[in-house]
Design goal:
mainly beta; 4-stranded antiparallel beta sheet
Length: about 120
């Protein structure tokens, strides 16, 4: 089991930046992939970015060139969000996927981008 705590959400104007952080605890050595998802009210949760233990990254088309995911260490992931748009407004969730394919989720942190 892995427990995740997100931080860094808040209110920002369009064009601004935020940096989200996720800290994992528990069985951290089981983590293969760390990822960030977002979910707007009434919408499906969507994958935003992910990074594997080997450093391979994935970005949704909507955030390419604006967001950067990183692994600060074995148990911490950051999502740097630049050039934020109102459509980025959502609850952002940290997720980890272990080598068995099991996903653990954080509680979410609200990101609101005003126009």
């Amino acid at each position: 089991q892995v427990q995740l705590v997100e931080s860094g959400g808040g209110l920002v104007q369009a064009g601004g930046s935020l940096r989200l952080s996720c800290v994992a605890s528990g069985n951290i050595f089981s983590i293969n992939t760390m990822a960030w998802y977002h979910q707007a009210p009434g919408k499906q949760r969507e994958l935003v970015a992910s990074i594997t233990r080997g450093g391979s990254t994935y970005y949704a088309d909507s955030v390419k060139g604006r967001f950067t995911i990183s692994r600060d260490n074995a148990k911490t992931s950051s999502l740097q969000m630049n050039s934020l748009k109102p459509e980025d407004t959502a609850v952002y969730y940290c997720a980890v996927i272990n080598f068995a394919g099991y996903t653990d989720w954080g509680q979410g942190t609200q990101v609101t981008v005003s126009s």
